[in-house]
Prior knowledge:
- This protein is of the alpha/beta class and 359 residues long.
- It has helices at 63-75, 94-102, 132-142, 156-163, 168-181, 202-212, 238-248, 312-317, 322-334, 354-357; strands spanning 13-14, 17-18, 33-37, 80-84, 122-127, 146-150, 188-193, 215-220, 251-254, 264-268, 274-278, 291-294, 300-301.
- It has a single domain (18-357), classed as TIM Barrel.
- It contains 10 helices and 13 strands.
- It has an 11-stranded mixed beta sheet, with helices on one face.
Amino acid sequence: MATLSFPRPQAATLAGEPRQERLRDRFGRAITDLRLSVTDRCNYRCVYCRTGEEGAIYSELATEDYLRMARILISLGIEKIRLTGGEPLLRSGLVEMVRELAELRTAFLPDGTPTATGQPVDLALTTNGHLLDLLAEPLKRAGLGRVTVSMDAVEPETFAAITRVPKSFERVLSGVRKAAEVGLGPVKINCVLLRGFNDHQIEAFAEFSRRESVIVRFIEFMPLEEDRSWRPDTVVRMEELIDRLNAFRPLVELPPHAASETARRYTFDDGLGEIGVIAPVSRPFCGHCSRIRITSDGKLRTCLFSQSDYDLYGRMLRGGTDEELRAYIREIVFQKEERHHIGEPGFEKPSRNMVHIGG
Ligand code: SF4
């Protein structure tokens, strides 16, 4: 198990004045990224996620509730918000929510100094792409900056076999092209690799990245599915993947955009195409984790693999003031997990599965 390095805690005061500190956990990690799930409904039933029976019950809060949570978290140092689900494009009023979120500005400068004139919050969205061809343009106009599309195959049969929705591939492909056309690019494609399901598509995905000018990110399969069928041998580990890609065409590693970036970046020797490898199982990146999550029913989760979640929405309903909620969030985030323990003795799967966490 690689030893993790943690950034050192910042100085607490400036010239003796206690100053508003940005959100950090007990390891000194600055928490700047929020994954906000706006629904746990989904119109796909992907084999590595929705493995249980179709549930009619789903949870969504009012737009104003998510906006209030976002404002409070931004005042504590959140700079990036990624909208997730379930499938966020199913959420009614999404374009309006994006418009309101896009007006919010960060509360800290990059060096951690509080500011009243911050940057616009970096707004992104992860979708299965089925409705993207219809919504890409209005979302872009409303202020959405970037989009990531979950695609686990680049040919119709395997795509339909994984999503269990016929004729879905063509819809998603036109959504990806529309997103690029309206300026939501470079479009990122997230592909969860499952041995025996779609690992035969690795070279086709490399070709797809080069042909469509999209960034293809391969993700190691994590134990987050409904029926707990994950096994270590279903994971296509980073080394094996890199060998396959190098055999396809020599890779050239690219520098990360930020220390907290989860993907290792590559292009090919001719500079065409970009590949990312997200390897939480074989090469964990928890040391620089900057993420927390709000589930669609308003629970705060400090890690994808948390065993518990905290009822932020419940405190709002019981009349918590913004100041009280800030103190509550600080307390919870300070206790954020050091890392996940996948594959270690005693590893426990998280209390929720992916569709109810929100990626
Ligand atoms: S497993 Fe938890 S700590 Fe590690 S990167 Fe993911 S969210 Fe962060």
